[in-house]
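Q: Predict the bound structure with zinc ion.
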Amino acid sequence: MIEVFDVVVARRALARRLLRCPGCGGPLRPWGRARLRKVRDADGVELAIRPDRARCTDCRATHVVLDAALLPRRAYTARVIGRALLGAARGRGHRPIAAELAVSEGTVRSWLRRGRQSAHHLWTIGVQAVVAFDADALPTRERPDTLAYAIEALVAATVAGQNLLGSPAADLWSQITVLTHGQLLAPAPAG
Ligand SMILES: [Zn+2]
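A: Predicted complex:
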């Protein structure tokens, strides 16, 4: 799976064999489309998504080219899930978060559980990225738990990266999705 900011640009790059296999680095070529998915964004907006697929011309592995606004196998966009994790990092429980996002309590609870399972890994990615971009931007405040440290480090990394590169501001959670290779939540079946 490859997370990209702009699926149209990525499709053109794929057609010209400019995307590289995340496994072996070989050139990828177009390989049809993945099945249609329905994904919910903020405020209940439903999106119908049909991602491109790519196949490596060297190792022949296939990869889905996914919009960075989305997480693999999740029925909600990264920013909805990200807001839930941010709420938890601020000490809120899953019930008020679920009510605010209009998502079922069980779904939010499972996101928070997965997020906490990934938290140490996410924190490591965030801190490494901050150090690479701007070590002075490393967060130093005490936080209540690992998830809070992780979210803070990821946000700091995207802000530091943007300051450094002056790149056009993509959605915060899309940037975090690219930074974490779509692993904001520990890998899980559909939900
Ligand atoms: Zn390959």
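A: Residues 21, 23-24, 26, 56, 58-59, 61 surround zinc ion (CB under 6 Å).
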